[in-house]
Amino acid sequence: MRIYDISFYAAGFFIFGVLAASLKLNFSIIAATTVLLAIIFLVFYYFQSYEVKPRKLWLAGLSLFVIVGAFYYFGRDDNQIKNLNLIFNQKINFEGVVVKNPERGNQQKLTVESRPPYSGRVLIKLKNYPSFNYGDLIKFEGIIQKPEDGSYANYLTKEGIFGIADYPKTEFISSDHGSKIKSSLFSLKEKTISVFQRVLPSENAAFLAGITLGERAEFSKEFKEAMSKSGTAHLVALSGYNITILVLAVAYVLSFFASRRLVFWLTLLIITGFVAMTGAEASVVRAAIMGGIVLLAKRANRLYSFRNAIVIAAFLMILDNPKVLSFDAGFQLSFIALLGIVYLQPAIQKFLKIPVEIESVLGWKENLLTTLSAQLAVLPLLVLYFGNFSLISLLSNILILSVVPLTMALGFVLGFIGFISYELSLIFSWFVNLLLSYETFIIKFFGGLNIFRIDSMSVPLVFIYYIVLVVFIFQNEKQ
Questions:
Q1: Which listed residue, 148, 167, 203, 318, has the most CB atoms within 10 A of its CB?
Q2: Sequence-ordered strand ranges (E) for 41-196
Q3: What are the extents of the domains in the chain?
Q4: What span, in angstroms and rounded, lies between the C-alpha atoms of 468 and 342?
Q5: How many CB atoms lie within 10 A of CB 320?
Q6: Dist. CA 285–CA 358, nearest whole Å
Q7: Looking at the predicted structure, is the pLDDT value of residue 293 above 90?
Q8: Beta bridge partner(s), residue 112
Q9: Which helix or strand (DSSP H or E) is residue 389 part of?
């Protein structure tokens, strides 16, 4: 078996082990099932032809990585609990450092790493003023409560947060207790958003901050609802679509000033910094890792394998935090949407007899196929997680996606100009605002059409749905 196949199956079995453990299956059951699977592969080994014998032997050995994945999940979980030392449901004084860029909106949300004698992360909810920043050391007086069971508690556990304190008394102690690099990146992000807010109407500034930097704090409740109903919320989630645009733009610009080797390393450095600056959400990390693998493959003159790239990207993210697999909706939606684009889109093209090379005004046909494939892939999850899915999202995405790359490019240019001259950025913002006004109009228009909606799906129906999709893909691959 070739090395890229070995890495694919090893990572894949590891991920299955993490999944089984996250579903609360007993470790002994997982281990016994894995051993049984290995035995089955060995049985096939003895009854297969000589050509495929080595493959079955390799699979028998690599299947044991299921046990490794489960052990890793349980080990990380036990280690977190062992190191946790918080007092719940009684008023206490404690100190902590803000370890993530604060979320701002109707309130501040601080992720705080508590200081001795306590240990463990706490989510602090505060009024917007006084405002705190990443790296601030703060003294709190209040009650820490355990998150209630449910999806939100699972999400907080995935973030390593084991307590919540609502509006405790605060006392600022000192700053600069975090990474200097992160502090600089977060500051750059805030200053860029400030440029948008100074020269654009508030709603358009918020949307531009969303598609370029993944910032959603300034969205109104009505606009968030319109994005959800129009199926355009993914535009501000910094998905692979946004990162691909950024990678291509950065590499193109740098190619005028540097050698190919330097362009490769500078692009990786810039994308890594961008990921850190925007909060390292699952979708953007996945896209950045896969983009890095593509760049690396080109640099090494090796054939790029999507199959390996997506599994390795998932493996690296799960290795960093095994809870993302089951408790991060963004992680699941990001990977499944990508699988839909890569595998379902060609099947739809064959089924509808659409030429592989598509030419259309503003690329509307490509956007239609891409959107249709991604939306069909994630449809059940959107209904299960968010309680709604609108079929009109296909049309709204076609009308918007064609102009998003240009809007993003102009948005970054606007941010850069804003650091140099307010007057010049004010003039340039007029062109950017035209595109943003068009996009926000489409979002609000289609968000107001309460038609063709799917509000619920049972779990058995979800399984049947994905089985039909898989059969559809395989049937059209054979043609």
A1: 318
A2: 91-98, 108-114, 121-126, 137-143, 161-166, 169-174
A3: 3-82, 91-178, 185-237+318-478
A4: 17
A5: 10
A6: 30
A7: no
A8: 98, 122
A9: strand 389-390
Structural tokens at position 122: 């706490």
Asked if pLDDT for residue 52 goes beyond 70, the answer is no
Residue 470 token pair: 């898989």
Alpha helices in 87-161 (DSSP H): 151-158
Non-local (6+) Cβ contacts of 79 within 8 A are none
Answering whether pTM is above 0.85, one says: no
Which CATH code of 3.10.20.280, 2.40.50.140, 2.60.40.420, 3.30.70.20 fits the domain covering 91-178? 2.40.50.140
What's residue 244's pLDDT?
Answer: 66
Report the C-alpha gap between 273 and 152 in whole angstroms: 29
87: left (phi over 0), alpha (psi -120 to 50) or beta: beta
Phi, psi dihedrals of residue 405, rounded to the nearest 5°? -55, -45
Q: How far is CA 355 from the centre of its chain?
A: 31
- The radius of gyration computed from the CA coordinates of the chain, to the nearest angstrom, equals 24
Residues β-bridged to residue 84:
none
- What b-and-e string marks burial along 166-200, b requiring 16 or more CB atoms within 10 Å of the CB? eebebeeeebebbeeebbebbeebeebbebbbebb
Query: What does the block give as tokens for 14?
Result: 């590891």
Say yes or no to pLDDT of 47 above 80: no
User: What three-state secondary structure class fits 80?
Assistant: helix
Find where tokens 């370890």 sit: 99
Cα–Cα distance measured from residue 92 to residue 198, given in angstroms and rounded to the nearest whole number: 41
Distances (CA, A) of 351 to 315, 394, 467: 33, 18, 17
User: How many angstroms separate the Cα of 127 from the Cα of each of 169, 258, 311, 377?
Assistant: 11, 47, 42, 39
Distance (Å, whole) CA 345 – CA 249: 25
In 3-state terms, what secondary structure has residue 454? strand
pLDDT digits (tens, 9 = 90+) for 322-354: 988 888 777 787 778 778 878 888 888 888 777
